[in-house]
């Protein structure tokens, strides 16, 4: 019998790829009018998928917090284990697993760029740092200067020997940098100007690889990357790995 998965938020009707991936492993219920507190108290679902921005609604009712989640206050799913929900960032874990599956194409000692909104970038940077990457440029969309400085200081206190550069998406297109890997969840509507300028990929090395976590909704970056002869891993690979990871967790749960 399949485990039960609730989509509270984070997967819209336009994202059929992720919905199908979830349904291949789980008995899926989409959206509910229940409150976060009620969902956690009733514990009727083995996995709850949430948008990163909704995590703060659940946090006050969670008795068990993963160390990374407690420090960053970012999660995209809740997993029921030993009668308690545990918050995780499954997409970040999936990205690291995809990277490891392509280790012959990626050198963890070379620079990496992660671009997207604050929650996504923070979670992925932490996962990469824990996975052995120590030279990372975090390009945030929609973040103010004071917020960037706070993020930089937080990581400085959390991760030893991490060379982390924190910038805005617009700054990325004008820097002198040569990364071997770029992980993107940058949507055009976030910042149209930066998005279009980014397609020159002048901040990537000649053998670089792009992991695009938004390619199913808009594959423009992927197409431009291929024109620039940049290697590409599309969203489908990350999504598939995400639900494979969740199913593995559930196999080890009663």
**CATH topology grouping of the largest domain:** Rossmann fold
Overall structural class, as computed from helix and strand content, comes to: alpha/beta
How many H/I helical runs? 11
| Outline | globular
Proportion of residues in extended strands? 15-25%
CATH architecture of the largest domain: 3-Layer(aba) Sandwich
Question: Poorly predicted ranges (pLDDT <50, ≥5 residues)?
Answer: none
In whole angstroms, the N-to-C terminal distance is: 12 Å
* CATH evolutionary superfamily of the largest domain: NAD(P)-binding Rossmann-like Domain
Largest sheet: 6 strands, parallel
Mean pLDDT: 91
Strand order, main sheet: write it out: 8-7-6-9-10-11
Radius of gyration, whole Å: 18 Å
Order of helices and strands: EHEHEHHEEHEHEHEHEHEHEH
Overall helicity = 40-55%
Total strand count, please? 11
CATH class membership of the largest domain: Alpha Beta
Number of domains: 2
Describe the structure.
40% of the residues lie in helices and 23% in strands. By secondary structure, the protein is of the alpha/beta class. The chain folds into two domains: 3-88 and 239-251, Rossmann fold (3-Layer(aba) Sandwich), CATH 3.40.50.10860; 92-235, 3-Layer(aba) Sandwich (Rossmann fold), CATH 3.40.50. The strands form two sheets. It has a six-stranded parallel sheet, sandwiched between helices. A five-stranded mixed sheet has the order 2-1-3-4-5. Strand 1, helix 1 (16-25) and strand 2 (26-30) form a beta-alpha-beta unit.
């Amino acid at each position: 019998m399949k485990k039960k998965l609730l989509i509270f938020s984070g997967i819209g009707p336009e994202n059929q790829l992720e919905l199908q991936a979830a349904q291949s492993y789980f008995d899926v219920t989409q959206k509910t009018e229940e409150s976060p507190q009620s969902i956690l108290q009733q514990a009727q679902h083995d996995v709850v998928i949430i948008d990163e921005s909704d995590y703060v609604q659940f946090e006050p009712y969670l008795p068990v917090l993963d160390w990374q989640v407690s420090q960053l206050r970012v999660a995209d799913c809740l997993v029921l284990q030993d009668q308690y929900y545990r918050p995780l960032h499954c997409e970040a874990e999936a990205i690291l697993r995809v990277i490891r599956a392509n280790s012959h194409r990626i050198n963890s000692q070379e620079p990496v760029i992660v671009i997207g909104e604050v929650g996504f970038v923070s979670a992925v940077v932490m996962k990469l740092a824990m996975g052995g990457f120590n030279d990372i440029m975090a390009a945030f969309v929609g973040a103010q200067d004071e917020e960037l400085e706070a993020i930089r200081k937080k990581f400085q206190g959390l991760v030893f020997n991490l060379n982390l550069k924190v910038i805005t998406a617009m700054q990325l297109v004008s820097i002198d940098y040569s990364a071997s890997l770029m992980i993107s969840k940058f949507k055009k509507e976030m910042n149209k100007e930066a998005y279009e300028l980014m397609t020159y990929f002048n901040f990537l090395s000649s053998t670089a690889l792009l992991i695009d976590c938004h390619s199913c909704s808009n594959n423009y970056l992927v197409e431009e990357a291929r024109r620039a002869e940049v290697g590409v891993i599309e969203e489908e690979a990350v999504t598939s790995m995400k639900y494979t990871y969740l199913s593995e967790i559930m196999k080890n749960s009663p």
